[in-house]
Each structure stands twice: as C-alpha cells, then as structure tokens.
C-alpha cells in the first residue's frame, strides 16, 4: 500500500470541511504561532523540480525589537534523502552517488541563502546497522577529521559560506580504531570546528547499533559558529530529555537532531519529542529523518518473533523545525527527498526565556542531588506506603 | 467569539474530507496506537447528561500476556470543571458550591468503576493568584491533613473505594502557617496517604503565584496505592523534564498533572509536554486543566503592557491521558465540565521499558556530574570556538 504523502497534506485536505475560523483554530492548537512560507529564488525552485526533491521554507515570528541589540536572523536547513544506489552496489559507488545527491541539494540550499545546513544521520551510507553484519558495511566508516566525506563538506562549506553538520560513521584512528556515530561541525570558513558523538545508543528492534559503537564520550559540546551556537543530538538521543538539557546548559541556541527512524516504531513520538525539547530548553530544534525503504542483501531478524526479512520498514522523513515559543513548522513529506529551510531570529530565545523563566525556575540543585543519589547502589526510591496505625 | 468545542471535534469533522485510510493514518500519526472508547453504565451517562458535564472513556491497549504475572488493569479519571459561583460570592458559598459539583462528578465516576480520580489544580477555589491580592483569597487555604476539603475527600474515598488526588491551597500550620500549592493523596481506605507540593512556581503573565507560596520541599514522592504507584506533578511543573524524571526515578507508574492554564499562553504546548513525559519516562500521565473564564472584582495587570482587566482569559480544559507507548486519548472539550476515564494496564510500563530501554540507556552518571558542575558559581559552558591557526 502506498505511503501517505504527509500529515500536512491530510490536514490541508481535511481542512476543506471546516470553516475558516475552525481551520485556523485547528492549526493554532496543532502548530502554535504561525510560521509563514517564505519565497525562494526561482532558480532554486526549478532545481528542486528538476532534481525531484521537495523544497519548503518557513519563517518563525521575529522577536520583539530591542534597543540595544539588533535582530539575529539566520536561515537553517535540514535535509532528508533516500539512498541512491542499491545496497548491493560497490561501497564506493554507493557513497559517490550519495555525495553527488548532497552536492546538488546543498547547492540548491545555497541559492536560498541558507547559513547552516544539517544532513541526516550517517548520510553517506545506508542504515545497515539492522544487519549486525560488520563486513562490508564498516568500509563506509571514515575519519571525522580528514576523511573524504569531511573534505567534501569542507569544500562546500567554504564555497557557500555555510556551516555544515555532517553525521557519519567515524573510524577513530587515535583511539584504537573504534567506531563512533559522530556529527562533524564544519565552519563556514571550511575548517572542521569539531565533532560530537551520539550519546545514547539504541537497542530497540532493528536499531541494535550497540554492536557497532559505544555511547559517546564527547559530552554535550556546543559550537560557536558565525550564525549562532549550535549542538547536535543524534537520533535516539532525542528520547532522552537529559541529553537535550545538556546542550541547553552549555548554551546551545539551535540543536540539530539528525535521525533515522521508521514508522511502526516511532512515528507518533516524532512530532512530540524534539518539539518538547525546544519548549523545555527554550531553543530551536531542527530534526530530520531518512526517507524511503532500504533493502539489504542478507536477511535478518528484528527481535520481535517475526520471520527474517531484508528491510526494516519505511523511513518516514517528516523533518521539521520547532521553536522556543512552542510553535513548529509543517513537516517535509514522508516519501521523498527534501530540504526544509527555516528563517529564525535567535533573539527570540532570550525573550522567551525572560517570559517563561524555565531556566530560572529549574532548581538544578535539587536534581543534581537526586541524580547523584539515584546512581548509588543502595539508592531507595522515595515511596510512601499506607501505615496500619 | 465563541470558543471552539475541542481539537477532536474539528479533526472528526474534517476527517469527512478524507478517505478511510487517510483518516486512519492522520489519527495514527497524531494519537499513536488506538485507544478505543469503552462503554459506560447507563446511569452514569444519564447523570452526566442531567448534570451537563462531558463523560468520556477510553482504554489503552492491554499489555502482552505474561505467564508469571497477571494483568494489572486500573481505571483512572481526571476532572475538569468551571467555578460554580461568581468570585464575589462569600468564600464559604463559593467553596460549598464547588464541593457539591465535585461530589456529583465523583459519584458518577464511581458508577463507572473508577479506581483513582484526580481533580484539577486548586479545585475548591477560583484561580485568584492573578490578582496578587491576599485578602480575601487566602481564606480559601486550609490544612492538607484535616481541612474540611480533605475530610470531604476522605469520606468519598472510603465510600467509593477510590483513591483521590485533591489539589488545594494549603495553610501549613506546622511550618509557620505558610501557604503551599499542595496535592493530597487519599487512599481508597479513606486515610490521608500523604501530600506533595508544587515543585516549580510560575512567574509568567498572570501566573505570578510566587507571591503566594514558595517552591515545594517534598521532593518527588511516589505513593503506593491499592491501584498502583502514583505521583503528582502540579501544573507548571510539566514544563520541567527534570521534575517528570524525578517521579520516574522514584518509581511512579501514573503521574497526574492537575493544571490551570489559559489558551493564549500555553495551548499549543499542552498536547506536547505531558505526552513527552509519558514517552521519556515510560509511564502513564493523566493531565487535567480548568475550564471556563474566571472574572475577579478588582482589575489587575498582566505584565504585558496591556491595560488592566478583570479576567485572564479562557481556561481551555482539553484534559487527556498519555501512555508509555507514545499513544494518547482524545482530549475532553475546551468549554465545559467533564470527566475523562481511562482504563490502563500497568504491565504495559515494564514491557515498554524492556522494549525501548530508555531507563537502561539513560547514563544517569554523566548527568549527575553535569548538573553538579552546572550549579557551581564558576561553571563554564563547554563551547567550542574556531581557532585562528
């Protein structure tokens, strides 16, 4: 059965049964303050048409005007894309085809004035972790400092004056050659600004990535770029509010969440978790997900009692941006490649923090103590029982 | 302009423009696994009709069958209701009228086999904190151990064999007579099991409750009842993921979130935050909100540059239950009183925890350290800057 195009297509179609006020109330409750579409250069729109990828662009409300600080307007983008070649093609062909696709997409983004772009999780490869096979898949791994994918990103970053967040499978030669799931942050100057690991590794269904790499050891680094302070919470880390909080504590203004997740497992959670993080931490979150179905040569099981099979379901795309004001953009589609561009005003962050005071009222001290207690071997939960007196 | 009845009314009306599969996909993405309606006794339905309150009941999917443990099926309920008398009526009249309304509602819930019921935040009073006036409002305060509201709840709890969560403005005679925003947990035996304070106090717009009471000092207690381990996260605490986590760490299976919040401020966040907490902590959350507009005798300002006025907008109800599986029930309506009943299987919690492993992969140690560092006066966020070499 064909996949549904997107939640937004359904909502738009169904809104025809509502009067204008009803449709606007539905939208307000589901999406918060409006994020109007923004116009894009004709050349970019044409390229998206020719290249068969969605190109959508929205803007968040600008912040209130401040006397002592100019607005800080930034255009961010997230990308979702299918793999290009079958997983049976030679590794180099698979990777080159993905590079070419991302070059095309990034060029189009540059025409739209994008300042920061984030590709999907482990973008230069199929998401082969479901197979648990190491060979030939680990051949996709490369250095996060000077591997060929990073070099390509450096060239694009310098050419387009764009910060690039590139999520790859890292082979860390300086630490015994182990693998990590790593996002590399490349400055708009073309320099590698640094890297950050996936902090929480899933063991759920086909997402048994713990056979490939361990939990990250880079903490919750935040990267000061020319366009604001950014951080990267990779995929499964979005289920962990503490992980989101970590980036907030270190001063992130925008947190990217490059992901790879399938419909049956997580789709109803997808609109909730990243958006909740944006609200709770009063920053912007931009999350993107793979799209399409990836089929592998050998069969594997999914730890769900079902027979072995060769794919693990449909990556549902639906990339979106959520803001500190509780609002969010519509999502990209569920079935094909796309770029979501979002214009944001970073000053909105401090203004929302001054309004809602979530940071001021956070009582971090009591939680520092609670967590320190909770990890002790003799920790006893604080449970009240009915007494018999 | 009349308020919209509910998001669900709009979605239902709009679904008429979709084919069956589209409508079901829209529902799946927005609400997760189906929560079918359950049939209620005719007497209860008639009482709701006569009493003019909504009566809605759903059930979450039962958990997988286990050989060594029977299912633990529980019916929980949350209530939303308008104040009955105008705020200018004598205090005792206002309170008695609310008692009568809650007696009627609780009796109806008992006919539906409800095991645990939670009333809305500070239910025996109007939400007068917006006025910042102390007199006469603080006359609503009473003891959380043996005040008249608690005695009423004890009688009902014993009569109906029901656990009652009763949120009140507490006058704490044992600690200098200060006020607290407190939830009292009453066992189905009729005994007061204990109390728990509101941990995070808002200072946002009209919700300047910090002039009445301080942050709670009861931590994150969990109460072992005959129907499962419950906790109460009062209102603004739902914006704080750490607060939700605290109840999870102490073993809560159901967390109630009695609230009082208005549309312009928080409505698009309402479906996100409590549901995210249910997902992240793999427990059930039941959240309820006041409904209607409360008008006060003297005008007050809202710290938003606008002229003084006598009400602070519309409490939008929309109470709902969210589960560890990412699903949620539809919400109650936005405009009138209601009881939302939900049948849940507590075994689903451990089964989802064993599937998703959020607790196992939480890495609490690194966050204990991060928070301990973050509260130090000389804490420096971990920010990476581009070097000039």
TrEMBL record, chains A, B:
Looking at the record, the residues that make up the CN hydrolase domain are 74-346
Q: Which reaction does it catalyse?
A: 3-(carbamoylamino)propanoate + H2O + 2 H(+) = beta-alanine + NH4(+) + CO2; 3-(carbamoylamino)-2-methylpropanoate + H2O + 2 H(+) = (R)-3-amino-2-methylpropanoate + NH4(+) + CO2
Top class in the EC scheme: hydrolase
Q: Which domain of life is it from?
A: Eukaryota
Report any one BP term from Gene Ontology: beta-alanine biosynthetic process via 3-ureidopropionate
Q: Does the keyword Hydrolase apply?
A: yes
- EC number(s) per entry: 3.5.1.6
Q: In which pathway does it act?
A: Amino-acid biosynthesis; beta-alanine biosynthesis
Q: Which GO terms describe its molecular function?
A: beta-ureidopropionase activity
Question: Which UniProt keyword terms apply here?
Answer: Hydrolase
* InterPro entries assigned: Aliph_Amidase/BUP (IPR050345), C-N_Hydrolase (IPR003010), C-N_Hydrolase_sf (IPR036526)
Question: What SUPFAM superfamilies does the record point to?
Answer: Carbon-nitrogen hydrolase
Which family does the UniProt entry place this protein in?
A: Belongs to the carbon-nitrogen hydrolase superfamily. BUP family.
Q: Tell me what this protein is called.
A: Beta-ureidopropionase
Source organism per UniProt: Amphimedon queenslandica
Q: What is the lineage of its organism?
A: Eukaryota, Metazoa, Porifera, Demospongiae, Heteroscleromorpha
């Amino acid at each position: 059965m064909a996949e549904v195009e997107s939640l937004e297509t359904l909502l738009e179609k169904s809104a025809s049964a509502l009067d204008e006020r009803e449709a606007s109330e539905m939208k307000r409750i589901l999406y918060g303050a409006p994020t109007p579409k923004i116009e894009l250069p004709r050349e970019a729109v044409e390229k998206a048409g020719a290249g068969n990828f969605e190109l959508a662009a929205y803007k968040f409300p600008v912040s209130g005007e401040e006397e002592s600080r100019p607005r800080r307007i930034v255009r961010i983008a997230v990308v979702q894309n299918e793999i290009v070649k079958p997983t049976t093609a030679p590794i180099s062909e698979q990777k080159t085809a993905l590079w070419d696709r991302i070059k095309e997409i990034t060029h189009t983004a540059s025409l739209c004035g994008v300042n920061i772009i984030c590709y999907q999780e482990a973008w230069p490869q199929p998401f082969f972790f479901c197979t648990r096979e190491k060979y030939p898949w680990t051949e996709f791994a490369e250095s996060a400092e000077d591997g060929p994918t990073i070099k390509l990103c450096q060239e694009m970053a310098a050419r387009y004056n764009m910060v690039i967040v590139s999520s790859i499978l890292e082979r860390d030669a300086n630490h015994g050659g182990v693998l990590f799931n790593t996002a590399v942050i490349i400055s708009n100057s073309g320099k590698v600004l640094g890297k950050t690991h996936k902090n929480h590794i899933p063991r759920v269904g086909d997402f048994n990535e713990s056979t490939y790499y361990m939990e990250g050891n880079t903490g919750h680094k935040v990267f000061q770029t020319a366009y604001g302070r950014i951080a990267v919470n990779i995929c499964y880390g979005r289920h962990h509010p503490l992980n989101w909080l970590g980036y907030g504590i270190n001063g992130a203004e925008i947190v990217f969440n490059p992901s790879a997740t399938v419909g049956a497992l997580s789709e109803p959670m997808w609109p909730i978790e990243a958006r909740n993080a944006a609200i709770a931490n009063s920053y912007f979150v931009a999350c993107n997900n793979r799209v399409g179905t990836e089929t592998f040569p050998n069969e594997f099981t999914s730890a769900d009692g079902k027979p072995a099979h060769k794919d693990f379901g449909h990556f549902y795309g639906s990339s979106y941006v959520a803001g500190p004001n509780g609002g969010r953009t519509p999502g990209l589609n569920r079935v094909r490649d796309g770029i979501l561009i979002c214009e944001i005003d970073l000053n909105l962050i401090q203004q929302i923090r001054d309004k809602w005071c979530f940071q001021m009222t956070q009582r971090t001290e009591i939680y520092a103590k609670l967590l320190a207690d909770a990890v002790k071997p003799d920790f006893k939960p604080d449970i009240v029982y009915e007494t018999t007196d």
